[in-house]
Write a structure and sequence with these properties.
Oligomer: single chain
Structural class: alpha+beta
Radius of gyration: 19 Å
Strand content: 5-15%
Number of helices: 14
Number of strands: 6
Helix content: 40-55%
Largest sheet: 4 strands, antiparallel
Length: 287
Amino acid sequence: MLKNTDYFNPGKICDSGQIFRMYRGEESVFFVYSGNRRLIIRCLSEHEFELDCDESEYESYWKHFLDLDRDYSTFVDKVDKEDSFLLRACDWGSGIRILNQNVFETMISFIISQQKQIPSIRKCIEALCARFGERHESREGAWYGFPTPESLVSKGPEGLAGLSLGYRERYIYETSMAYITRGLSDAEFLALPYDEAKQYLLSFCGIGEKVANCILLFGGGRFDAFPVDVHIRQILAREYMGLKPGEDISTSAARKLVEEKFGRYAGFKGLVQQWIFAYEYSRITGQ
DNA sequence: ACCCAGGTGCTGC
DNA sequence: GCAGCACATGGG
């Protein structure tokens, strides 16, 4: 049971695009999957939650996974009062936490995410878990864990066919193979300096600048990572350059603008990114 | 048929 | 460093 918990809104987190294996159940119930673990969150009120998982897993795993050991109140107060768009995004995104997901799962998930829409990404990952993951039985029904790299390569490169992964099949296979031979444990990865952690990620096939930043932010504990994707570029163009809706700018121009507009939020730039991404995404999908 | 999606790798300059 | 292109697949 979690009481008096502020700045924690499972619904906002579920829709924020940083996690693909989090689902809405009935009546304010959420299912969260990570590796071979599962957490059920029941929202009792705005500040009270029942967390259902194996005994001891909360303190040893889920508390940090949900980033509940961080004080989010300080970040909200630091938003520039002149920046009306960010104020709205921050207000809307209140309750989003930046998760600490496991690294290999985040690598494969965001390799899949490229050139795909979020519902489609979820389906691909589900299919991958069903084919290669460990099966678990529970009162609520059967579910599958996230596959290990060994499992993903166990049927050869062709073993990944038929899951709508397209050209990403090769990326997943190559990255899994490389991870088996030279992958770091999560603890080793987290201990790396920022630049080395990024270079490590970029050395895998299918991981470029944007995906690396997603992994750094959503699984790598780097609160300053700022992924720039098509939505972020459109926000910058529209809200910070006065261009017409839909007009795009180059990624390099976007990175300069990010530094100019959000550089002052050093220490929590990644949270700022999630506020504006989730706000924009809700606008597009009409929530 | 066309355009786009939480881009990356590769080539050529 | 930067532009241009191919790359699967599903959805509008």
